[in-house]
Amino acid sequence: xxxxxxxxxxxxxxxxxxxxxxxxxxxxxxxxxxxxxxxxxxxxxxxxxxxxxxxxxxxxxxxxxxxxxxxxxxxxxxxxxxxxxxxxxxxxxxxxxxxxxxxxxxxxxxxxxxxxxxxxxxxxxxxxxxxxxxxxxxxxxxxxxxxxxxxxxxxxxxxxxxxxxxxxxxxxxxxxxxxxxxxxxxxxxxxxxxxxxxxxxxxxxxxxxxxxxxxxxxxxxxxxxxxxxxxxxxxxxxxxxxxxxxxxxxxxxxxxxxxxxxxxxxxxxxxxxxxxxxxxxx
Length: 282
Description:
This protein has 282 residues and is an alpha+beta fold. The protein folds into 2 domains: 1-63; 79-281, Glutaredoxin. Helices cover 49% and strands 11% of the residues.
């Protein structure tokens, strides 16, 4: 290359300016593209987030209500039964509000009748044994007017069923029946004890629980929805905590099920329940 072929100083400066200008233009275009993509991405992100929020809100709104209020017909925390014309009849009451607590005084009591209260966990094997041994005798005394019977479901045995919360789900079922089909409560309770799963297993599925409730005669969409949504989940926890914290219901090893109270006195020996009722009736 000769000296004549080389670009002059001015030409080199002009070339450098052209290269710089081209690079600047390219950089401006890149920034515009990035800005567009960023704005578009943010916009799409906002739309996506809004869509997710909308879906969550819709799903939450479509979920059946889980109540911290108590079921109807359990104003004392228990469902109560009295004798009427040789039959056992549930006492109807209003529900306890979410901020309320069960009343300490029995809702209804026949004149002179002995008040029997049972605290039971439908997942409790000893409760099953107690009912098999004494339920018919106690109900005979209710039918005759000698006694009234109150049954309070609690949940203290979730730990025995592989973290499936079977005891709590069974207690919710008890409250669903008390609320929507109180006249079927005793029949449903019999179904649960007769078909009680073995401790150490995962217990019964929700579908199996629903079958037992139906087999006991409690049917209808309200019952089904109450079971599937675990409508009284909050109340199961609240009422169980109140019971287990009551020192009057605790034995030497704390609270356990079944706990039976006859005219305000907790029985240390469950085998004395019938003699205790007879003694209180005198």
